[in-house]
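Progress narrative, work stream C.
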Amino acid sequence: MNLSNIPNIKHTNSNNFFLLAGPCAIEGEEMAMKIAERVVEITDKLEIPLVFKGSFKKANRSRIDSFTGIGDEKALNILRKVSETFNVPTITDIHEVSDAAKAAEYVDVLQIPAFLVRQTDLVVAAAETGKVVNLKKGQFMSPEAMQHAVKKVKDSGNDNVWITERGTMFGYQDMLVDFRGIPTMRSYAPTVLDVTHSLQQPNQSSGVTGGRPDMIETIARAGVVNNIDGLFMETHFDPANAKSDGANMLHLDYLEQLLTNLVAIRKVVNTL
């Protein structure tokens, strides 16, 4: 897969999966820089192509009092500082048509949230920026349905598009990953496995989404074995006190060993 259209991406000749990683939301400069420094250190050591992830705002929230952000410009400027400080590309979510051009001034990849991936105007606006567009598969969509979202990006004159599998609703409060969908989606576009959101337990009566972070390595290993192009995972040095998605984020202390294990598996897969 060609990653050369992404500025500042490293280790593209390592034959590893690429990684989208960082906190769920940008909570402030200090936390973002702390997480970025550690993630960059680990991925450089293991020669994993990295795109640093952080949402500049959170629009899809369970409750009206849930954390939504620290201010758009402030958060986007922090993402720019991460990119310039560590010489890495960045990715963030967009939620409205007007977000596309605004965020594109600061980041290298625009992500369409799963709940919004059928919103044609939003997908087209992201595509028209010329940035790579990462389409998260709707929890309510089949793998086959994602070909139409990909086509919207390509028909807008942009061939730089990825799909991210992030689980499918299983009952009211659980998610599952159907690995039969990976080769299907890879036939449409490079495909990423979101190993943290796939383990969410949404729609809790408390209004706070739960999760199963203890299963992150299980899901990630299965993705690597099944030739996933990239992995997505949210990580934080204090998930219990994170302002968004703490219940399913990976503790930053566990990231290096997890990625070391996954790189070892990838090396075996590459010989098959």
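Work stream C, second folded protein:
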Amino acid sequence: MANLLRKRESPQRPTFLELFFDLVYVFALTRIVHELVLDYTRGHVAETLSTSLSENGETLLLLLALWSIWTQTAWTTSRFDPFQPAIQVVVVATMLGSLFLAVAISGALASTGMLFAGTYTAIQVGRTLFFVLTLRGHGLRRVNMLALVWFAASAVPWLVGAFAPELTRNLLWALAVAIDYLGARLGWPVPGLGRARVSPWAVAGEHLAERYWQLVIVALGETILTSGSSLLRGPIVAERTLALTLSFLTTVLLWRIYFYRAGQILGEAIAASANPGRLGRSAEFSHLLMVTGVVVTSAGSELLLMDPTGHAKPAWVSAILGGPALYLAGRSLFEYVAFARVSRPRPIGILVLLAIAPLMVGRPPLGVAAAAAVVLLGVAVSDAIRAHGRPLEQASPPR
């Protein structure tokens, strides 16, 4: 059914349906943040950074699964016309499935593991099978046939892991996530059938660029939602009000750092690239790092509002400072995608955050959050100084 395909001359702007779809991910990211906060506040976990990283690894698996669903949906609406009723049904069905995934997050590593694994595999296998059945005679049918083999393969460890003990489950789900991500990265190669060589970035770079920055806005919006809700769960006193203000300032700085030039011209960079597919994959990974950084920062904000004047435990410091550091790492890669270079303030900011982390253990969380905000402010101010009085820099992606 060639009429399902997006026409090259069609507007590349995301549709209201896609913005509607993103609403579920506000809730989903909120649940991920909740799980991170639980990770950071479990007795022994809060005391040692190494243990907290191990605990966070389980929550990261769930985030990666959600990211895979969102990314595949963004690719779908880049290749196919979202105004076609059949595509709208696919997107809305994926939206419902994503809602079930979000609901299952809180117990996905225990009581609701089967709901999470079953819903995830149903979305990936079901959606891909739909396109295999409807795209008869079109080259994209073969792409979906190859992807279907990989999603069917990853479904086995997903479903078996849902019934396995904790350690086995984590290993099986890590394997399943690896299969899904490796398959997409390699073009879903299947012996005897070859691999897919069609990249949506090559034909819809402008659309995908806008979808990724919309997801960044969703993630930043989640930090505001979490911070405001956290303030309401306790007395509204001066210290907690200041904590909310710091959290909001941090969110504003993350927004400013993202949209400073590179965040506005990703579509141009993709169009100017000699290899849009490779550049698009780098852009995708950079956004995964940034969204993960925002999520961790949001968890740090909730920890801050719990006890703003207490003693910051090692795991709390890792969240409050580590989130912005991870965000700057993703933003550095993103800048390289757009300009084939990285401004020095970004890696310097990462090094400063890492260097001060040991010094912040035991200090009031307000002080830790203020230090993170000062570093981000330094990066944002350096951007403004560098841009002052100069013409807007044009995209110059790596060759």
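The two ends are 36 Å apart (CA to CA). No further action is required on this item.
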